[in-house]
Write a structure and sequence with these properties.
Oligomer: heterodimer
Structural class of chain B: mainly alpha
Largest sheet of chain A: none
Number of domains of chain B: 2
Strand content of chain B: under 5%
Structural class of chain A: mainly alpha
Radius of gyration of chain A: 20 Å
Distance between the termini of chain A: 27 Å
Number of strands of chain B: 0
Number of strands of chain A: 0
Number of helices of chain A: 4
Shape of chain A: extended
Distance between the termini of chain B: 51 Å
Helix content of chain B: over 70%
């Protein structure tokens, strides 16, 4: 549970919303002035999703109990989900496999 | 007029299968917003103000853990920076839309609407009105689905017992998003390096480890592409 004030949360949400809109509108609005992203920019931008997604997911698996722990139920369930995600590239299947694996492992523990 | 409507509905039909995957993602975004301590109105408003799932989940996760405000905004915007590529790729296709339709196209931009639209534009040459109608059909379908899903999540959110460990759905969604983002050697190296770095950086204060790890991943990815 957050202790940030509701006013501050509103401010954060609006800032993220405005910033995201500016990213989205960027080249649509600039047309005629800047035609395309420079190559080095494209190269970095296309690496960002893979890097950020796995930077978010990894600690939730390796540090599920608070400290580094590769024997936790969440680590195993996450590995199973990753295999399903890799094979199917399907969000629903990944969620179902990961949650089911976690519940089974927790029931067995 | 008739064909504009047809183009709109083609967009709706083409994105429909993707929407099935968006539903649980949106429900989770609603549930975790409530669990993180957002008020009901806030939890629902995030989806229309931001309307970008991965960044919403990451920001809500950080809000729930009382991360530094600057870092919350920065993390969300880094996640959404990929949409600059979509904006650049769509710009020549949607050139000449008036201000209102440009704003609508930007606000409704998502990975999915971009993907189906650019695919369509590469397959057939249509005039601008039809291109926009198709994009709008796909994009607005996703918007409506996302709003309904988050409202459902917010409504059921408080009622989910903690034993269900539904918070685990957050890393699961990100795991599901990693693999479509890994397209070649550079992106694969970026993902692996970022994962190792993130797990090593957990003691860095203010949750700065996430952005530091992403930077390491991007650096490794660039290096891997250079080395080829």
């Amino acid at each position: 549970m957050t202790t940030l004030s509701p006013g501050l949360i509103w401010l954060l949400v609006v800032l993220i919303g405005v910033g995201t809109f500016l990213i989205r509108v960027s080249f649509l609005a600039l047309i005629g002035r800047v035609e395309r992203v420079p190559d080095w920019g494209t190269r970095i931008l296309r690496l960002i999703p893979a890097a950020v997604m796995s930077a978010i997911a990894a600690p939730a698996l390796t540090h599920a109990t608070g400290a580094f722990d590769l024997a936790s139920e969440r680590f195993f369930a996450g590995i199973i989900a990753a295999v399903v995600a890799w094979k199917t590239k399907n969000v629903v299947a990944t969620l179902a496999a990961g949650m089911a694996a976690l519940w089974i492992l927790q029931a067995l523990a | 007029m008739h064909s504009r409507r047809q183009a709109f509905w083609s967009g709706v039909v083409d994105i429909a299968p993707i929407l099935i995957g968006v539903l649980p993602f949106g429900i989770i975004a609603g549930v975790v917003a409530v669990e993180a301590g957002l008020h009901t109105v806030q939890a629902i408003a995030v989806s229309s103000i931001v309307f970008a799932g991965a960044s919403q989940l990451a920001a809500i996760d950080l809000i729930g853990r009382d991360a530094a405000p600057v870092l919350i905004v920065l993390t969300a915007l880094v996640i959404n920076s990929r949409m600059a590529i979509y904006s650049a790729a769509l710009a020549p296709e949607l050139r000449g839309l008036g201000r209102l339709r440009t704003v609508l196209a930007a606000y409704l931009m998502t990975d999915q609407a971009f993907a189906v639209s650019i695919n369509r534009y590469h397959q057939s040459r249509e005039d601008l009105d039809l291109r926009f109608a198709y994009y709008f059909g796909a994009a607005i379908s996703l918007w409506i689905t996302w709003q309904i899903a988050t409202v459902v999540g917010v409504v059921v959110g408080g009622g989910v017992p903690p034993e269900w460990s539904l918070d685990f759905a957050v890393p699961l969604v990100f795991i599901a998003l990693i693999f479509p983002a890994v397209k070649d050697r550079g992106t694969a190296v970026a993902a692996i390096a970022a994962a190792i770095a993130a797990s090593s950086f957990t003691s860095i204060p203010l949750h700065l480890g996430l952005l530091a790890a992403a930077t390491v991943g991007i650096g490794a990815g660039v290096a891997a592409e250079r080395a080829r």
